[in-house]
């Protein structure tokens, strides 16, 4: 039977979904050898949100993270990165900035980059794909899936044809960030895409907020999918990706081949279960089917952060009302795909509508820019009444006609003449003193420490000696075997 390749998402998308992107580099290092030898085609590592989280919250240099991890994985799987086309942060991306980001990811060790655009604007997307190829990395074009009257199979086929005309991509991906695919939809969509792709591999990336993720993978592979994206079970399921243990067992039962080492996978899984216990992080749990998810379509990573923001604003009790409002706004704004940054735009507008008790009384700049086409061509026409409200309530300083985005790297290099391009890029996307604070903290520590500063081994020993009912304690690692007691 056909051999299925696997992209591991554990240290990229999975902790973004379940741990709010708070996995540190030292938490990853103890199992890098297992990741290297597990049989994965790619180990995903970085997307734009990880650059932000590394600097802003973890005080880690994300470029250093890439260098450390890619060096440890050398000779093994590819190191995966992600590029959001058209938009950087929450504004339009200058071409030279996007190109330099891709180049520096490749220079530091990323050798596969998946590019996506939340509006499926091929005019935005093809530039990232082509520049990735020029930089010598594997180029993947990811078409973000959405469920709406405009996101038909015919649309995705047409977008694929446009990509094939504009790029020399290495692989095409169906990126189901919201976990919206069903086995029934896959049964129609995958064969349609395979027909136009020919020998180009088709990848499938999904999440599990409705519990259907594993079934989607099984049906997708039956229909011709070549590559799937999974995480170890500790960080799988829930609003994360499907579990490699579950999916591999099911596929082997169907006589498909996966060159995945169960021993390595189990060691990775056990390690992150221990990390979760030490840090108080949640483990992934199976979700029951929830049809309401298809209305708001919030992706996993955003849901975690949105709930936190509602709690900070003191309106946790308004969660269901905000979700209902998101579903309404999404339809009114011509069905933008609920993926960064558009999911954040709509989520913010929904919260403002609920807080103020009047819809579109306050309109963020990003919503007005979206309506005016600043980020790319919209999937459909915005409701006229809503459009007028957005224009009226939005900032009067935003021109009605988008201007072309000028290159910024020459001015940035002049402003930061003593800094490397890597540091300049970080200072551009992360405002404030965060980069200075990151630099002040120094190089990334290679030994895993708990958030309270306690070494993880110390923490384990403290837990052991706090127990009084042990007669014998055995500690075993690859290099040490120690027995204490009778």
Into how many domains do the coordinates divide?
2
Question: What is the average per-residue confidence, as pLDDT, rounded to a whole number?
Answer: 90
Separation of termini?
53 Å
CATH architecture designation of the largest domain: Alpha-Beta Barrel
**CATH homology-level superfamily of the largest domain:** Aldolase class I
Please describe the biggest sheet, giving its number of strands, its sense, and whether it closes into a barrel: 8 strands, parallel, barrel
Structural class: alpha/beta
Q: Identify low-pLDDT runs.
A: none
Count of β-strands: 12
In the CATH scheme, the class of the largest domain would be: Alpha Beta
Radius of gyration: 23 Å
Total helix count? 22
Q: Strand order within the widest sheet?
A: 1-2-3-6-7-8-9-10
CATH structural fold name of the largest domain: TIM Barrel
Strand content: 5-15%
